[in-house]
């Protein structure tokens, strides 16, 4: 399952929760995600997306400009319901 950072909503902000890079998080780093790959069901930062693109050239990750194709977090889903 995709990993997400601590919700900013919980801290009293109107901002939407941020996504963490799945590859960086596996290495115990907290790097904000810039891309989401539907094929991998994972998030990637600017550094990690280059390796992803080399390993999986047929995948088409979605950048922040296309966040409507990113999944909704469970906390946001619960909030909307």
Automatic annotation (TrEMBL):
* Presence of keyword Repeat: no
Domain of life of the organism encoding this protein:
Eukaryota
Keyword match Zinc-finger: yes
Q: Name one GO molecular function term.
A: zinc ion binding
Q: Which residues form the B box-type domain?
A: 16-60
Q: Mind listing the UniProt keywords for this protein, alphabetically?
A: Metal-binding, Zinc, Zinc-finger
PROSITE patterns (UniProt xref): ZF_BBOX
Q: What is this protein called?
A: B box-type domain-containing protein
Give the source species.
Dreissena polymorpha (Zebra mussel)
